[in-house]
Amino acid sequence: MEANAFAGRSSEPTDAALAAVLGDTRSIWQSLLSDLKRDLDLTGDWHTGSVKMGWSFRLQWKKRNIVYLGPRQGWFLASFVLGEKAVAAAKKSELSAEVRKLIATAKRYPEGTALQIEVRKPEDLAAVKLLARIKSEN
Question: Which residues contact 35 (CB under 8 A, 6 or more apart)?
Fold first, then answer.
């Protein structure tokens, strides 16, 4: 998998740096943030676990992490850690067979099931939005 575009940087990305990295997908990023903030009342900030790994935009609901958006060159990654209830709800949801397969084969940790969705085109947003809703409700 391609590395985070902001790996190795000690300070959070600026809007200009993010726009340069995302290119044409910047509008998709902005649309997703706008929709999640409006529809799920999420708040967001830049976060890094280590400078080596890079920066991600973390979206939270009442201090609960919902999704991390990790910039790549020309696209971004939406990362979730789903608990048992969220996994069960996702399996029963209207997610595509492809996304349900990703969930079924995803690595499980004590914190939950780790899931990553590549966002390269507007059509990829539906799964991210639905998973964010599922996670926030479960």
Answer: 125, 129
Residue 8 lies in a domain: no
Tokens matching residue 22: 């995302």
**Joined tokens for residue 35:** 């929709």
pLDDT at 2: 86
Residue 70 is encoded by which pair of tokens?
């990790």
Flag whether pLDDT at 1 surpasses 80: no
Give the residue-averaged pLDDT of 70-77. Answer: 97
Q: Write down the residue that tokens 């609960």 correspond to.
A: 64
Q: What is the average per-residue pLDDT within 17-43?
A: 97
Q: The domain that contains 113 carries what CATH number? A: 3.90.1150
**Phi and psi for 43 in degrees, rounded to 5?**
-115, 160
